[in-house]
Amino acid sequence: MPRLERIVETAVYVEDLDRAAAFYETVLGLEALVRLERLHAFDVGGCNVLLVFKRGASDETQIVPGGSIPPHDASGRIHVCFAVPAADLAAWEARLAAHGVAVEGRAEWPAGGRSLYFRDPDGHMLELMTPGVWRTY
Hints:
This is Catechol 2,3-dioxygenase-like lactoylglutathione lyase family enzyme. It holds the Pfam family Glyoxalase. The protein folds into two domains: 75 residues, Roll (2,3-Dihydroxybiphenyl 1,2-Dioxygenase, domain 1); 62 residues, 2,3-Dihydroxybiphenyl 1,2-Dioxygenase, domain 1 (Roll). The strands form three sheets. A four-stranded mixed beta sheet has the order 1-4-3-2, with helices on one face. Strands 7-10-9-8 form a four-stranded mixed beta sheet, covered by helices on one side. A two-stranded antiparallel ribbon has the order 5-6. The protein is of the alpha+beta class. Strand 9 and strand 10 form a beta hairpin. It contains two helices and ten strands; from the N terminus they run βαββββββαβββ.
């Protein structure tokens, strides 16, 4: 059986693209790779990309060089987890506080990893996780 290697992209769908982009750039310090009317793509390190779509803006087939992208969209709140070094977790908590972002939960996992949970402006649950949670991380 062929093997999956990693998740290259994940996406959130938001009501206000500019507000969401400001949050991901300012609070999380992500660099924009692409800025379009319907989406912004952010570098999350290596070959990991966060796509932030304007809700409803991708509900038609998109013609691209060499093919097409089928319609897609989502509603509701989702969960996205970002890997962080254990030594940086306290600095991340301070950064969130400095930007007025409330930490809604904390976890200390049996294998030694820790997590912080907070929300983006659209209510998506975001997590910062240190190594020691999964067998693979």
